[in-house]
Amino acid sequence: MAEILETKGASVLFRKEREREKLPSEFLTPKSSRYIKIKYLVEYLIALTIFVSLSPILITIAVLIKLDSKGDVLFRHKRYGLTGEPFYVYKFRTMIDGAHDLQSKISHMNEMDGGKLFKSDKDPRITSLGRFLRKTSLDELPQLINILKGEMTIIGPRPISTPITDYELEELQRFQLKPGLGCIWQAYFRHHTDFSMWMKTDIMYVKNIGFKLDVKLFFTILKGVLLKKGAR
Fold this sequence. Notes:
Blueprint: H1 2-20, H2 34-53, H3 55-68, E1 74-80, E2 86-92, H4 99-102, H5 128-135, H6 143-148, E3 153-155, E4 180-182, H7 184-188, H8 195-208, H9 211-226
Parallel strand pairs: 3-4
Antiparallel strand pairs: 1-2
């Protein structure tokens, strides 16, 4: 109950924050088509099936995290979704408790060009179990909850924490679709560290969204996950 109240309070703060920001609506109007509507529905049903099927694994991971280190099982982080709306994305916790407070002390270890995101293969805050969960992408499974809440979909630009005011105008097109578990970047460039290229691939997806592309990306990302390619 406390978490629900906290989430409602956060939603109010998010709305107030949105009111303060002057967003160019022409770049933040959701794309809509018959295919996109069907895509969201089908991927919702797929996510529901996966969530139910993997529930024993999800419970097992939750228990292991609790036994491995101090802190909550789930990590919630503010991200920006469709039309720039902020929301909380869910992941299994892979770092020590209070990791966010330590980030400024290891900022020199950032491997992501552009400085808008922090990524490091040698991040000392990651737990031993956390490294395994990240390598296998199992830490991402709780985002199925985000899909079931209507905040995300399976294939789409990854939700990231960079404030929408920090993007180039053209890059805001990535917010015309719901964020997803993976997109072109995760399929083909996950090991690269160029933020601007990441944004370009997201825009490429927005402009070329379609059934064939979605199917190709789904199986390419799935293959990469199974082979543990590029995960951090």
